[in-house]
Amino acid sequence: RRGQDGYQSKAFFDSGGGGFGQACQCPQFRSQGVLVEHVPCHYWRISVVCGARELLFLRHAKSDWRVAGSDFERPLSKRGRRDAPRVGRWLHRQGLRPDLVISSPALRARQTALDVCKAFGIGENRIGWEARVYDASLQTLWRVLTECNRRADRVLLVGHNPGLALLLAHLCPTLELPPDGKVLPTATLARIRVPADWGTLESGSGVLLSLTRPAAMDTDPE
């Protein structure tokens, strides 16, 4: 049986004759990303214990190259300001609220993260502005992920290419390139299922669930 998001794993307690009762969450298992199903019975037996979490990789929305200034201070373009909220609305419709949001502090990524998080009422002070994500290598992004709070079951990472695309390929090596050869164009969201413990991520341990570009987000069924 799957959890509310379709991918949340569970530990089921069963008995010889009892049916499933009301679901509850045991803190001991919940801290490991495992939802526990409670069954009223004379004895309990754990039949399945396994965990899974999700990563949401979001490349910042399209930026405006016409604005003078440093790369770090480059803002979103008109198209980017339209696409970023679109991503947030799509995530909200899909029921994919992040437990933890980590973003590059570069202006274009910052604006993207803020616009996305508005859909969930997540304020600026609840976003982790991680300087290492800006212009980060694969190794640096990997370290950022392994340091995630273990209580977070779904993490949204807002960043830049080529780092995000390299990280996606490292987690999901069987990823097939889209027809145009672009894995993560601006404002594109990758949804990945990963093992339960952030600290034990391994190359190839991810399962790509979806790769969605902003143009498809208004047409996807709710």
From TrEMBL:
This is Phosphohistidine phosphatase. InterPro entries: His_Pase_superF_clade-1 (IPR013078), His_PPase_superfam (IPR029033). CDD domains: HP_PGM_like (cd07067). It comes from Candidatus Kentrum sp. TC. It comes from the Bacteria.
